Structure formats: structure tokens, C-alpha cells
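Recall the central idea of this unit: under ordinary conditions, the amino acid sequence of a chain determines the structure it adopts. In this exercise we apply that idea directly, starting from the sequence alone.
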Amino acid sequence: MYSRDQASQIKQAFWTAFGQYIAPHPSAEGLKINWINYKTGIKHLSFKMQADNRSAFIAIEIAHPDTGIQELVFEQFKELKAVLNSSIEEEWDWQLHTTDENNKTVSRIIKTLPNVSVFNQKDWPALISFFKPRIIALDDFWSTANYSFDIFK
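Accordingly, the structure predicted from this sequence is:
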């Protein structure tokens, strides 16, 4: 078991390593990008990557405090599902009004990698191989679809 500080340091080391690994890859628009803190330009809409001691996930997360607006954004993603699927090339889970780790109501389009631990360095290649193509695919999707969400800015 790790102390809170040790756990934080290990996670920070992983995300630093991932950031260095993916940094040379430009965005779909050919620009330098902060892949770990991806900015969608829409408040309460993020591309979230998370890893803990049991699993990892990457998600499109809609965290607007108004669940009605969450649902509208979620419906907009449903309208673009074919475009999204052509970018990510796999099925993700669609979760309207679920609860996040802080017990807050969010909606997510999510892909999970079970049975990995960010605290086990032997799992880091699997985590990197999981996150890298999916965040690049989300960026590819977002470069064409973001205009459909301008109403939510």
C-alpha cells in the first residue's frame, strides 16, 4: 500500500512519461497539443484519461451541473455517433447521467481497460498503448465535429 504522497508521485511519473511519449505527435490540425489536459473549448466537456490500481479509462465526459444541458450535449454526440465511431473504430459505452468518482452526476462516452494498475510499472506499456491511439482518435473526431457543439460554448 502506498501513502497518498507516494501514490501521487507514481501517478505523476506515469502521466509525465505518457506526455513525453505522445508529445511529438501533432494534433489532427498539425498543431502542438497538450494531450493530457486536452482542451475541447466547451465548458464542462472534456476528454478524460484516468488510471488507478484496478483499471484505466478514457472518456468524453459531460459534467455540466444542469442535467438537462448534459442530456442535450449527449444527444448531440448521438447525432454524430457515426462520425465518432469512424474515428475511434470501436464501440464505447454510452452512459447518460452516471456518477463520477466525486459523486457528481456526469454523462460519459467511455472505454475501459480492466485489470491494469498505474502503480505497476509493468502495466505502463499497456496503459500507453491503450490511451495513445484513443486520444489521437478523439482529437481526429473533435477536429471535424467541434463546430456542432458551438451552441454550448
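Residues 4-25+33-152 form one domain.
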